[in-house]
Task: inverse folding
């Protein structure tokens, strides 16, 4: 944990997609208290008409480069940590692959350690004691 | 917020998909206390075998036109509001694009305002004060 | 409920995908207190680069056969029930279609009965009284 589902339009290069993945992960490590090797993501690349967003609601203007990050976290973080993560994410995405800050949207869902099994049918709560 | 992930089979026309998107959004505005320009959706169109549903559990009979709406809301609504939204959604989808009521399933996940950043690394809680 | 979103790589046979779906459902019925006909799943088959996972974090080694199960449950289960479900899932997937236990990851999100409408605009809480 966390696990993040990333939604963006089709048509970007593999390098661009990889840079989105890398920048998200680095922002989680830098600002969301995530270990460096705790990296789990799905990148959903959508056709025109499948990714629907208002260009101006609470920010923007958003372009077709819009990316939505849905982060599933395994424990609560403070509002301050969340805010630092939002800022760090847009900073890093602006550097690589060069996503405009206006095109970055994030939502976080939180569950508990007992809701995770990383591997082999073992509960995380039995791993971490 | 909200953000909705819509799961349905491939093979519908762009107009049909657009009408599903429009009817969902209108139901959220009409019955779920959502602003008119607060519109964020992903529409996932699945191949045969990728969308699995029981035809009769707690309703139906469901057909291959089955649509699942997974709504992520940023604050709690009352059970009455949720119920009115469910009703409004099937009403509107029945009109456009003509989805049978039996084929409409909804589930809602709720988080908090501090879990959203709409744009530019700004936390929603700093926008709305 | 529950509804499960399954994320795995493209390239498996329809029989393999069906066996993943069947084994998940059987594990939910056997160990997660789910009725036999309460079956709702989306299977998302991803291209290389779209399913990102660390091969060793908290388990593994994970291979390209890695599968992530995101279960949305409509009521709380105990930690013991969750743990039994994790174990049963890897047991059944190991039998059919033959997924290595190291390649199975699970995360659970929980909401409430009032957050579900299975069909026809009716709230589940009005169905079950």
Result:
């Amino acid at each position: 944990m966390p696990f993040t589902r990333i939604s963006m339009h089709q048509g970007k290069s593999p390098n661009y997609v990889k840079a989105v993945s890398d920048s998200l992960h680095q922002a989680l490590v830098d600002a969301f208290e995530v270990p460096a090797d705790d990296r789990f993501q799905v990148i959903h690349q959508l056709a025109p008409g499948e990714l629907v967003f208002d260009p101006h609601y609470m920010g923007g203007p958003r372009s077709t480069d819009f990316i939505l990050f849905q982060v599933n976290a395994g424990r609560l973080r403070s509002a301050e940590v969340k805010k630092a993560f939002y800022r760090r994410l847009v900073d890093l995405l602006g550097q690589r692959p060069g996503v405009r800050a206006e095109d970055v949207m994030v939502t976080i869902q939180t569950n508990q350690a007992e809701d995770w099994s990383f591997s082999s049918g073992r509960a995380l709560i039995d791993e971490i004691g």
In short: Helices of chain B lie at 14-31, 79-95, 124-127. Chain B has a mean pLDDT of 97. Chain B has one domain: 3-127.
